[in-house]
Design a protein that fits this description.
Elements: E1 7-15, H1 21-42, H2 57-62, H3 73-100, E2 109-110, E3 119-120, H4 122-132, H5 139-159, H6 166-169, E4 179-181, E5 194-199, E6 204-209, E7 227-230, H7 233-241, E8 243-244, E9 248-253, E10 259-270, E11 282-288, E12 294-300, E13 310-312, H8 315-344, H9 350-394, E14 399-403, H10 417-428, H11 431-445, E15 448-452, E16 469-471, E17 486-488, E18 495-497, H12 498-520, E19 566-567, E20 574-575, H13 582-589
Parallel strand pairs: 11-14, 14-15
Antiparallel strand pairs: 1-10, 2-3, 4-9, 5-6, 6-7, 8-10, 9-10, 11-12, 12-13, 16-17, 17-18, 19-20
Helix pairs in contact: 1-3, 3-5, 8-9, 9-11
Keywords: DNA-binding
Protein name: Cas12f1-like TNB domain-containing protein
InterPro entries: Cas12f1-like_TNB (IPR010095)
C-alpha cells in the first residue's frame, strides 16, 4: 500500500449457489490447467518477470507466450493475469534470495554430529540478518529474508549443501486451488468471459460467466444464465462509496475434500488523508505481550502520559488455543503410531485397509483443528486492530506506534510446559496478522502507523530511561528473571507491569519520531530512534492528579445520552466502559 494512494481495495467472498457449483468448478479446473502450464513453461524465464513492463500482468505474459489452449482470448487473458501475478511475486522473491545467498554459511546449521537433532542455529541467522538489514527498512522485508534463509537451511538438511540458485531451492509454484481473476476481461458490462452488475434496490449482484459443459463445449448463450447473489448491507455501502472492480472466481477446499466456488467481490474505496505532522500532538503506543495480548498508552510530545494503560486480556482465548494445539499433538502422535503399524503389515493384510481408513479420519481431524486454530487467530487479530483504532480515535491520536513483531522469534523449546507454550505462542501467534490488518485499517481511516525499534522496550524504565530488571511479581523482587511480568527500576523506584512499561517506551519512541518528522516537515525517510538516544524523552510518572481513562466520545453535557462504542471483528460485540462509578463520573464530568 503506497502512502500516495488515495484508495484501497477491499474484498468480500460470496459463495455461489449450489446449482452452478458444478459448472464453476469445471471452469476453474480448465483455467487452473492452463495457468499451471503457462507457469511451468515460463519458469526458466523468471528473470524477465522482474521488470514490470505493464500494470497488468497478462499483457506481459501475452508478449512471452502464445495461448496453449484456445477457448477465448479474454479468458486466456484472465488465466495469464493469474500466472503473471505468481511469476512476478516469485521474481521479487528471487531478487531477495540474491541478497541472502552470500550470507549462507554452515554456521547456521547445527549438524547431527553436534546435537542429537539437527536444527538451525538461530543466533547466527539473526546476527547475519541484522548485519544485512538497514534500520530504516520495514519489518516485513526482514520477515521475507528470514523465510528465505530458513528455506535454504531446510534445503541443506535434505541435500547436505545450500542451493546455488533460487530455482534449485524453489519448486515450480503451480496452483493447487484454482483462482481466476477477471481483471483481464473488458469489464462487467462488456466482458466476454463474465458480466456483472449491482442491483442496489434488490441488494443483489447479478452475475453471468462463461463455462464449458461436461463434453468441453463452451456455451454461446451464457449471458442469459443469470446468477443472483445477495449482498450484505456493509458490502453494499462500500459499493456505493467506491468503485466496483473486476471480481475473482476462487476455489475453496475443505479438509474433508469438499470443493466449492466463491466470488470475491472487490471494491476500491477512498481513504482518509493522514494529517500533516504539524497537526499531530498525541501518540498511542502499544506493546504485544504474552500475558496480555495488547497494552496501550497515550503520551504527548512533551513526555506527559495522558491516559492510564489499557490491557486487552485474552486469557480464555489462550486456553482454547492451547487445548486445540494439544489436541493436534495427540492426533499427530496417533497418526505416527498408525503409520508405523501400517509399514509393518504385509501386502494383502485386511488390517492394512482398516489402518488406512483410520489414518484418513485422523488427518481430516488434524486439518479441522488447524482450520479452527487459524480462524480464531484471524478473528482475534481483527478485534485487536479494531480496539487499537478505537482507542486512537477516542484519545485524539493520529499516530500509532508499535513494534514490528512479525520478525520476532523465540529460540529454544522451553524448559517446561509453560515455556513450550510461551515459545509456540510467540512464534505462531497473531502478531504478524495484527500488524497486517492494523496497517490497512489505519490506511483506510487516515491514521499513520509507524513501527519502532523493538530493542529493550520491556527492560527499560520509562520514567528515567535507564535499564531495569523484571521480576515474577511485585511481591517477588528478590530475584530478577528475564520473563518476569513486573518491572522495577532500582534507580528511580518506578515499578509496574512490563507490558505497561513497554507501551510507554514505544510511545516515547513514537513521540521522538514525530518531533523529527515535524522538524523536517515530512513523514518519509525518518530514521527510527533508539531508547538510548537523548531526543527520546522520559515519561512523567503522573500528571497533576490521576489521569482519566480514555475519554468518552460524547460531549460532557450529553453524558446521560451518550452512546456505546462497539468494536467489530469478534463473535460477539465488545463494549468499553469506564471503571469509575457512575456517581463519580457524574460529579467529575457532569
Amino acid at each position: 500500500m503506497s502512502k500516495k494512494s488515495t484508495s484501497q481495495s477491499l474484498s468480500y467472498p460470496l459463495r455461489l449457489p449450489d446449482d452452478v457449483q458444478v459448472d464453476a468448478l469445471r471452469l476453474l479446473d480448465v483455467s487452473r490447467s492452463v495457468t499451471n502450464q503457462v507457469i511451468t513453461t515460463l519458469w526458466p524465464r523468471l528473470d524477465e518477470c522482474s521488470v514490470r513492463t505493464n500494470k497488468y500482468a497478462y499483457k506481459q505474459i501475452e508478449a512471452m507466450i502464445a495461448p496453449p489452449v484456445s477457448h477465448g482470448s479474454r479468458l486466456f487473458r484472465c488465466e495469464a493475469e493469474q500466472a503473471g501475478r505468481i511469476l512476478r511475486a516469485q521474481a521479487e522473491r528471487k531478487q531477495q534470495f540474491a541478497l541472502i545467498h552470500p550470507i549462507l554459511t554452515e554456521g547456521m546449521i547445527v549438524s547431527r554430529s553436534e546435537a542429537p537433532r539437527p536444527h538451525k542455529h538461530r543466533p547466527t541467522i539473526k546476527q547475519a540478518l541484522d548485519a544485512l538489514k538497514q534500520n530504516d527498512e520495514d519489518g516485513g522485508s526482514h520477515v521475507a529474508l528470514l523465510s528465505l534463509v530458513e528455506q535454504a537451511c531446510n534445503f541443506y538438511f535434505k541435500n547436505g549443501c545450500f542451493p546455488a540458485s533460487y530455482e534449485e531451492m524453489q519448486n515450480v509454484p503451480v496452483m493447487q486451488a484454482a483462482q481466476l481473476p477477471y481483471a483481464g476481461d473488458d469489464g462487467g458490462s462488456m466482458g466476454q468471459a463474465y458480466r456483472m452488475a449491482v442491483d442496489f434496490k434488490q441488494k443483489q449482484i447479478v452475475l453471468a460467466f462463461r463455462t464449458p459443459d461436461a463434453q468441453g463445449n463452451w456455451s454461446r448463450d451464457w449471458r442469459d444464465h443469470l446468477i443472483r447473489l445477495t449482498i450484505p448491507d456493509a458490502v453494499l455501502d462500500k459499493c456505493k462509496q467506491g468503485n466496483l472492480q473486476a471480481p475473482v472466481l476462487r476455489e475453496v477446499k475443505e479438509p474433508d475434500g469438499t470443493r466449492y466456488v466463491v466470488l470475491d467481490v472487490i471494491v476500491e474505496v477512498p481513504i482518509r488523508e493522514v494529517p500533516e505532522p504539524k497537526d499531530m500532538s498525541n501518540v498511542l503506543g502499544y506493546d504485544w505481550g504474552v500475558r496480555t495480548l495488547i497494552t496501550a498508552t497515550v503520551v504527548d510530545l512533551d513526555g506527559h502520559q495522558l491516559t492510564r494503560p489499557f490491557f486487552l486480556d485474552t486469557g480464555c482465548f489462550d486456553g482454547e488455543q492451547a487445548r486445540t494445539r494439544r489436541q493436534i499433538d495427540v492426533l499427530k502422535a496417533k497418526v505416527a503410531k498408525l503409520e508405523a503399524h501400517c509399514d509393518r503389515l504385509q501386502g494383502g493384510d485386511a488390517r492394512g485397509e482398516r489402518c488406512l481408513k483410520k489414518l484418513t479420519v485422523l488427518r481430516k481431524e488434524i486439518s479441522l483443528c488447524w482450520r479452527k486454530y487459524e480462524a480464531r487467530n484471524h478473528d482475534l487479530a481483527h478485534m485487536a486492530a479494531n480496539v487499537l483504532l478505537l482507542l486512537a480515535v477516542a484519545s485524539g491520536c493520529s499516530l500509532i506506534a508499535g513494534e514490528a513483531l512479525k520478525s520476532m522469534k523465540s529460540q529454544g523449546r522451553g524448559r517446561d510446559a509453560k515455556g513450550k507454550w510461551r515459545n509456540w505462542r510467540n512464534n505462531t501467534q497473531v502478531r504478524g496478522e495484527i500488524w497486517r490488518i492494523l496497517k490497512y485499517k489505519c490506511f483506510l481511516t487516515g491514521i499513520h502507523l509507524e513501527w519502532q525499534q523493538p530493542r529493550g522496550t520491556s527492560h527499560t524504565c520509562p520514567h528515567c530511561g535507564k535499564p531495569a530488571d523484571t521480576y515474577k511479581s511485585s511481591e517477588h523482587l528478590g530475584k530478577a528473571i528475564d520473563w518476569g511480568a513486573w518491572l522495577c527500576c532500582e534507580h528511580c523506584g518506578w515499578n509496574g507491569s512490563r507490558d505497561y512499561a513497554a507501551s510507554l517506551n514505544i510511545a516515547r519512541l513514537g513521540a521522538a519520531w514525530l518531533k523529527e518528522a515535524q522538524r523536517r516537515k515530512r513523514m518519509v525517510g525518518i530514521s527510527h530512534p533508539k531508547l538510548q538516544e537523548k531526543n527520546v524523552k522520559p515519561v512523567c510518572y503522573m500528571l497533576a492528579g490521576s489521569p482519566l481513562r480514555f475519554p468518552a466520545s460524547s460531549p460532557r453535557a450529553c453524558l446521560l445520552y451518550a452512546g456505546k462504542i462497539y468494536v467489530n471483528g469478534w463473535t460477539y460485540s465488545v463494549t468499553l466502559h469506564s471503571s469509575y462509578p457512575s456517581s463519580l463520573m457524574l460529579d467529575a464530568c457532569g
